[in-house]
Amino acid sequence: MAAVGSPTTASFRTKEPEPEREPTEEKIYDVVLDITTLDEAPNHSTGWKLEISDKGAPNTRKWMENHLKENPTEGDYVYLTENESIELSNNFLQVPKSNGTNMYSYVSVLGFFDRGKTFILNKLTEGGGKLPSGHRVTTKGISVSIPTSSQCKFILLDTAGHNSPIGEELLDRIKSKLDLKNEVDPKGGNTREKNANEIQYKLREEEIRTKIQEGAIVAKKAAEQFITSLASELADTVIFVVNELTWFDQQAIESLSKQYPSVIVVHNFKATGDKANYLALRRKYVETIYPGAMNKVTLPGTEIQVEYWQNNAGSLSHFFLCKEGSEVGVEVNQGTFHQITSLLNANVKPARNHPIVDIIRTSSLMMENYFRGPIHDVAVRYNKNTFEISLVASTKAENQQDAFTMTRSQVEYDGLNLGITSGDFKPLIDVIQLDECIVLKADIPDLMSDAKSKTYSEYEDYCEVFIDDDDRLVIEGKRSTFFLAYNSEGKSTNQCFSYNKTDGLGRRLIIAERKSGKFQRFVKIPKGFSNREDDLDIHFAEGTLQVRIPKRERITRKVRA
Fold first, then answer.
1. Cis omega before residue 23 (within 30°)?
2. Residue 433: which H helix or E strand, with range?
């Protein structure tokens, strides 16, 4: 199959590896959105920090100083409009343009921890080793890099690697948030009491450590999943970095292939310096597993041949890297980076938003999958004393605390999204657009007939349907999971007990798959359809909610001749 596009003039010369140097404090990406935990976003004392490169820092600081003079404000923070955010961002993020308009593609670089993502980014951005890689450096949040070559028309989104270890900083945050204390005094009482207290004290310490670890795991997995989803949602092309293929890698590649029209898998055989071993690995992990054929392209003006595996549709490409500086590395690596750049440049999209705008808008939409919401907006702000920049989420809900309560979570794996999924009940919906109306169907078990609520003892299930100020259809309610108590004759006593309680009769929970909790679903009403609640036709029947939204009436004005 012929290659897409043509190699650029960017240089990817392979050099002998330099001695490893300690990473400096210099900010190494063009911009980094530091997402350590999700609950920092609505926290107005922290937010998500937006760290910028040293190169863009002076102009950015000058812009904020001038903006503050023209817009004096009370308080420590200055919140920016979308246009002001773009003005600020242009000082540290110069995006590729064509004829005065933004023209580029987003490339998301994904992979598990310590697979070599940063090494690949260095080559694609012509960083010359400016991005530190190795066990001592972990990419934070989502980082944006723009290649220095004018021939490169793409923006690279680097993500924190999956399965990286939990750090001390996160453990300290969770410990502070949980505020767990050991009330046991190991030194009180006589000798026997002291011994007993010491045992109880150690048990309590172990319990506290376990709760902190569990909290850190859920927080980290939630942040990992959000970061990966954000980068994937923005991406036009995904680069997925692997070493020797694992089952998790295969799951991730399969998942990505179903989501994106263009996926590039880079098999980074970073410890392989022997050509025979490289060819054996290539056959074992690619040629015998994935359908397709080997493509051979000669770089213009050279005798260098690039070999990469591609499926028949051209949507999944496999490239290869070997040990940097080795004989086979010199032969393989240079051509690999040239051809990847060629494929990326062939997927450029015109008239793009500024990357900061895309990140803000996409983050705002995605947060509703993690918080009980509704999330109103994500804004850029700066501290007028320190000039630190951050992103902060806000809500229109009256109860701020409830809106930014994270949904109950459970750990699940699908190969790519290693992390948490909501443990709260979330109705599954279908939306069908017909000529005369839109029909929405939602599965809400236990809500029978046209009654919008029902009550058992202290448990109440309810469902409300309305249209909010943003012209979104909102389904809001609560679903409880409980069991009814029965008397000796097998008749219900109308008394209820939740699954985590006991009725005193020895009953216990064996399996718990049904989810419960408060829920909200939002559906944007398309143009041309009514946004008046009086026009909604709402019907409940045997656990299914159906909402009919008619077309908006057209008003025809008569014009006198």
1. no
2. strand 429-433
**Strand partners for 549:** 438
Integer Rg of the chain from CA: 28
Angle between helix 82-89 and helix 57-70 axes, rounded to 10 deg: 140
Which residues lie below 8 Å from residue 168, measured CB to CB, with a gap of 6+? Answer: none
Measure the CA–CA gap between 498 and 492, rounded to whole angstroms. Answer: 15
Least confident of 125-129, 245-249, 342-346: 125-129
d(CA 256, CA 244): 18
Strands (E), 434-488: 437-443, 453-456, 459-467, 472-479, 482-486
Q: Look up residue 126 and give its two tokens.
A: 């012509």
Euclidean distance between CA atoms 230 and 263, whole angstroms: 16
Q: Which of 223, 30, 32, 238 is nearest to 120 (CA)?
A: 238
Rounded Cα distance, 23 and 213, in Å: 29
- Between CA 280 and CA 291 the distance in angstroms is 17
Are 292 and 303 spatial neighbours (Cβ–Cβ below 8 Å)?
no
Which structure tokens are listed for 103? 């023209």
**E strand or H helix at 194, and its extent?**
helix 191-234
Token pair listed for 144: 């944006």
φ/ψ of residue 445, rounded to 5: -55, 150
Report the distance separating Cα 208 and Cα 130, nearest Å. 41
Nearest to 320 by CA among 124, 311, 329: 329
Exposed, middle or buried, 322 (CB in 10 Å: 0-12/13-18/19+)? buried
Per DSSP bridges, beta strands 77-79 and 453-456 are unpaired
8 Å CB contact between 120 and 168: no
Backbone φ/ψ region at 54: left (φ over 0), alpha (ψ -120 to 50), beta: alpha
3-state class (DSSP) for residue 461? strand
* Confidence band, pLDDT 50/70/90 cuts, at residue 136: very low
Q: How far is Cα 384 from Cα 63, in angstroms, rounded to an integer?
A: 12
Reduced to 3 states (helix: H, G, I; strand: E, B; else coil), residue 313 is coil
Q: How confident is the model at residue 8 (pLDDT cuts 50, 70, 90)?
A: very low
Contact 270, 321 (CB under 8 A): yes
pLDDT in tens, 533-549: 889 998 887 778 899 99
Identify the CA nearest to 540 among candidates 464, 456, 426, 482.
464
- Nearest CA-CA partner of 340 in 124, 143, 153, 117: 124
